[in-house]
Specification:
The chain is α/β, with parallel strands linked by helices. The chain has 10 helices and 9 strands. It has one domain: Metal-dependent hydrolases (TIM Barrel, Alpha-Beta Barrel).
Length: 234
């Protein structure tokens, strides 16, 4: 199972600190999901050797402008192993779920964002994962937490009915805010998810990273087609 994190300068802890804490808590990997204007550099291989945990290079595109989002997507798709678009408006949510180049629509129910049956079907058709972001449940209070719970419930019902792919995260910005897989399962069960749903969503990050690493490799040509001896000789 993998967790996603905002590392410095987007968060409060370094990638190494996140990796060390995540490994101690039983995660197999972390996905660094800094926003496009606060990206960070790190040595994934060195961190993996030091802490025995996979570190995935990701980016979270944050903009309310569809044309800018499209430009960022074109720039980042060949550079990052996981490309996410942060939700928050109906226009951006629709843009994300209709794009084959987007891996994850992040936090789609935040602010003015929403997901309906049309977007859920589009996400399934284009293979875009919808994120169940548990951060507001873990760290928000009052009305914000109530609205987050309502959004998660609606999104869960749509996912159960229309079966788009999905991921789960606690979305911490500090290693002190990391919660172990068993804790995320407990929180999920408390708000209506099953243990299997939470574990499936945490594991989906690994599947996504493995697929995209294959696609970013020099040997990949198209789904099901890899570069072999004949292709190299040509």
């Amino acid at each position: 199972m993998y967790e996603t994190v905002h590392a410095t300068p987007d968060g409060q802890s370094t990638v190494s600190r996140f990796a060390a804490t995540a490994a101690a808590q039983g995660f197999d990997g972390v996905v660094v999901r800094n926003h496009q204007d606060a990206r960070t550099e790190f040595d994934a291989a060195a961190i993996r050797d030091a802490f025995g945990i996979d570190v995935v290079r990701g980016v979270e595109i944050r903009t309310d402008d569809r044309s800018r989002a499209s430009g960022y997507l074109g720039s980042f798709r060949s550079e990052y192993e996981v490309v996410m678009v942060r939700g928050g408006s109906r226009a951006i949510n629709r843009f994300a779920v209709e794009s084959d180049a987007v891996d994850v629509l992040a936090d789609p129910m935040r602010e003015d964002g929403d997901v309906n049956h049309v977007l859920a079907r589009a996400a399934r058709e284009h293979g875009v994962r919808l994120e169940f972001n548990l951060a507001p449940v873990l760290r928000a209070t009052g009305g914000r937490r109530v609205r987050a719970l309502q959004g998660l419930r609606k999104l869960r019902e749509l996912v159960e009915q229309y079966e788009p792919p999905y991921v789960v995260s606690g979305d911490p910005r500090s290693h002190l805010a990391l919660r172990a897989p068993r804790e995320l399962v407990a929180v999920g069960e408390a708000v209506g998810f099953t243990e299997e749903q939470i574990r499936t969503g945490l594991t989906e990050w690994r599947r996504l990273a493995e697929r995209n690493r294959e696609r970013l490799s020099d040997e990949f040509i198209a789904p099901g087609v890899e570069r072999g001896r004949y292709e190299e000789e040509r």
